[in-house]
Amino acid sequence: MADEITVDLDSDATVNYDDHARTYRGFIKLSQWATGFVIVVLILLAYFLI
User: Fold this and answer.
1) Quick one: pLDDT at residue 6?
2) What's this model's pTM, rounded to 2 decimal places?
3) Residues sharing a CB contact under 8 Å with residue 35, sequence separation 6 or more, in sequence order
């Protein structure tokens, strides 16, 4: 059987908000670039196929 996993809820685990914010900004920037890329591809498809 699997060993039990215990979580210490009383520890002084700190959340690194700077890393979280940096990761979030990176995700948003990646999403914007990906959306722009898809739009360009759709425009090119429309131009060359119609």
Assistant:
1) 76
2) 0.64
3) none
SS3 label, residue 31: helix
DSSP state of 50: -
For the record, the structure tokens of 48 come out as 């060359």
End-to-end CA distance of the chain: 61
Other beta carbons less than 10 A from residue 44's beta carbon: 10
Is 7 or 37 the better-scoring residue by pLDDT?
37
CA 46, 27, 29: angle at the middle one, nearest 5? 55
Tokens of 5: 């996993």
